[in-house]
Design goal:
Radius of gyration of chain B: 39 Å
Number of strands of chain A: 5
Strand order of the largest sheet of chain B: 6-9-10-11-12-15
Structural class of chain A: alpha/beta
Helix content of chain B: 25-40%
CATH topology of the largest domain in chain B: Phosphatase 2c, domain 1
Structural class of chain B: alpha+beta
Strand content of chain B: 25-35%
CATH architecture of the largest domain in chain B: 4-Layer Sandwich
Number of domains of chain A: 1
Order of helices and strands of chain A: EEHEHEHE
Oligomer: heterodimer
Number of helices of chain B: 15
Largest sheet of chain B: 6 strands, mixed
CATH superfamily of chain A: STAS domain
Chain lengths: 97, 567
């Protein structure tokens, strides 16, 4: 997985999100952005077909406890389907590319 | 005798429009005491403005007035309120004027000069009508409120009844495998009620020496069918509970069950049902089927159909027949209610024409159900199906690893397993990616909840506080437990099974029921098993709860079923 900051409140992930290292990298960069004052984040998820439950849990906390507005632009329809099945697409502001 | 005016008139506001000041004073004095409030206007234009601003419930008006006549004002008021009572006070009895006034819905006329008794009579009539309107409106509102209450009440009762009905459906093998004739099997269910109250029911019970299965489809639909099916499955469960321990006698069970149920059926009622027994020590299945659609048995050679042994159970049934079936070369068994085979397909036919072929072609319950839905959409009847699948066979290929319960090692193990999967070429890339995600979730579950024994609530709390990851790293140093993972590729009866078994050395756990229910978007944790479920055809835990086996099933092998492999 590659993670890049593509705007002041925008992240782009390419490749599959799956390892613990992926989770830690996402958590680190998002936390930095939030600590820098970002109140809203847009995440472009390119290619990944899934999202580990650890990453999901992190974003659920970010939205519900830290009150950060998150939106996700999802490229792979399988990931979109997963978020819908887990009743997360609305919470994550997820939309298909 | 003076006209009696309802006290309700004193709750009303009236508008009185008259251009002649003397008449206005005189009439206003008469009207004022009859209403809560009297608004007075000096011509039609002023009257219309007062009506728009104050919306009185009764209007009294002269006709001949400067700027706007009484008729013109009435026409304008009618555009705003077609129903407000308007009483004309006029000295003219001109026929054309009267016709115009009547066409505008004038409620009453008072000739000028207005005698007190005429005024009282007009007010009594109009106020009485208004009071009646009010009473009717209130009655309607009360009836509507009662209907809404009753609707909500019935809805609530139906939900309660449905929950009760669901509580009668037992599955001792949810996420567990069972052994029959030396083989490992899983039992999967699809339960798709058409109405809130369902006529179908099922039960899968663990007996001391085998699996006892029940599926029923009560005659008709709705409440009556639901009562019969609830009674039938409850009776089955009570009998099964009483015989759960010790050696099981299927013939005796069927006899007792049918004796009890026959007494509960109405004289013109029949009950289609199947009872089946799969003993642990022999590769056979014994059925006592009563007027149910054929049981389908999938083998390497095709599909075997087991027709019912008996007509549907009725109060007049005398005795019963059972039949035995070998399971040596069997890969799956499908029991279903007629909501499946009788379902209308999008092409205007019946699903029964597609059933055998779909069953032969689909390697798993999920594949089969997706194929059904693709052709039927939403079925018009209740559907219940039980899918038993054999999930063990001689391995063609096997890979095992074991690692300490440390996050770094677990991560490395996941990568090794992924590499092995890739080299085995067991699945195409997309399916392999999904299966890998399921394995990762299972490995992390084994690490967090198995080896480190972190319970769900503690995990949520630490995630909330942002200290979970640090807690894992701190805790893992004090735990000496290992996690093992085994990948196998097996072949049996024309299909291949890719299995991943992840085992930890913790005390084991039983997944909380909510993990299988609809997802709660607010929870910080609890999605791992949902993802395992999504990315596998089946998964099951061992008895202790410290090992989980994930399965993907797909056609393949030297004895694969041909496209026309039906018998």
């Amino acid at each position: 997985m590659q993670l890049a900051k593509t705007g002041s409140t925008e992240l782009t992930i390419t490749g599959n999100i799956k390892t613990t290292a992926d989770y830690l990298a996402i958590r680190k960069l998002v936390t930095e952005l939030v600590e820098g004052g970002a109140a809203a984040l847009t995440l472009h998820v390119n290619e990944s077909l899934s999202m580990p439950s650890s990453v999901i849990g992190f974003f659920v906390k970010l939205i519900n406890r830290d009150k950060i507005r998150v939106s996700m632009v999802i490229q792979d329809k399988r990931l979109m389907e997963l978020l819908e099945e887990l009743n997360l697409s609305e919470l994550f502001g997820a939309r298909s590319l | 005798m003076a006209a009696a005016i309802t006290p309700y008139s004193r709750e009303l506001t009236a508008l009185f429009v008259e251009d002649d000041s003397a008449s206005r004073r005189l009439m206003a004095a008469q009207l004022r005491g009859l209403f809560k409030e009297l608004i007075v206007a000096a011509d039609g234009r002023e009257g219309l403005a007062a009506f728009q601003a104050r919306r009185p419930q009764i209007v009294f008006t002269d006709n001949r007035m400067p700027f706007m006549s009484g008729l013109e004002m009435t026409a304008a008021i009618r555009r705003i309120d077609p129903k407000v009572p308007i009483i004309f006070i006029t000295s003219s009895m001109d026929t054309a004027l009267m016709v115009q006034a009547i066409n505008l819905g004038i409620s009453s006329f008072i000739p000028k000069p207005a005698a007190a008794e005429n005024v009282r009579q007009a007010v009594a009539t109009v106020a009485g009508l208004l009071e009646n309107d009010l009473l009717q409106r209130k009655t309607l509102e009360q009836e509507l409120a009662l209907l809404q209450f009753r609707e909500k009440y019935h809805e609530f009762q139906q939900e309660l009844a449905f929950r009760k009905e669901l509580s009668l459906l037992e599955n001792d093998y949810q996420c567990r495998c069972f052994h029959s004739g030396g083989g490992d099997w899983i039992a999967q269910v699809v339960y798709s009620p058409h109405d809130i109250m369902c006529g179908d029911s099922y039960s899968l019970r663990r007996m001391a020496d085998g699996l006892l299965l029940f599926i029923a489809d009560a005659m008709g639909k709705g409440l009556a069918a639901s009562l019969t099916t609830s009674l039938s499955v409850h009776t089955f469960n009570l009998l099964a509970d009483a015989r759960a321990a010790g050696a099981f006698d299927f013939q005796d069970f069927v006899r007792r069950y049918t004796d009890l149920m026959r007494k509960r059926l109405l004289e013109d009622e029949v009950l289609p049902l199947t009872l089946a027994w799969l003993p642990a020590d022999r590769p056979v299945m014994v059925t006592a089927a009563f007027g149910m659609p054929p049981v389908l048995v999938g083998t390497a050679g095709g599909v075997r159909k087991l027709r019912s042994d008996n007509p549907p159970l009725s109060p007049y049934a005398d005795g019963f027949r059972t039949s035995g079936h070998g399971l040596d070369a069997v890969r799956s068994i499908l029991f279903y209610t007629d909501g499946l085979n009788e379902a209308g397909t999008d092409d205007g036919g019946l699903y029964r024409d597609h059933l055998d072929r779909d069953y032969a072609a689909c390697a798993s319950r999920d594949q089969f159900w997706a194929a059904f839905q693709a052709q039927v959409g939403v079925p018009e009847d209740d559907v219940a199906l039980l899918w038993l699948a054999r999930v063990d066979a001689a391995p063609l290929w096997r890979f095992t690893l074991a690692v300490p319960s440390r996050l770094e090692d677990v991560e490395q193990a996941c990568q090794d397993l992924e590499l092995q999967l890739e080299q085995s070429a067991a699945l195409e890339t997309g399916a392999r990616g999904e299966f890998t995600m399921a394995i990762r979730e299972a490995m992390l579950n084994a690490y967090e909840h198995g080896s480190l024994e972190i319970d769900f609530n503690s995990k949520c709390r630490m995630l909330e506080d942002g200290v979970y990851y640090q807690h894992l790293l701190a805790l893992e140093g004090s735990v000496a437990r290992r996690i093992s993972a085994t990948l196998t590729l097996q072949e049996h009866a024309g299909q291949r099974l890719l299995k991943a078994t992840v085992e930890d050395e913790g005390p084991g756990y039983t997944p909380a029921p909510f993990l299988f229910e609809a997802a709660d978007s607010m929870l910080l944790s609890g999605r791992g098993l949902k993802m395992v479920r999504k990315y596998t055809d089946a998964f099951y835990l061992n008895e202790k709860g410290n090992a989980i086996t994930l399965i993907r099933i797909y056609p393949g092998g030297s004895d694969a079923v041909g496209e026309n492999g039906l018998d």
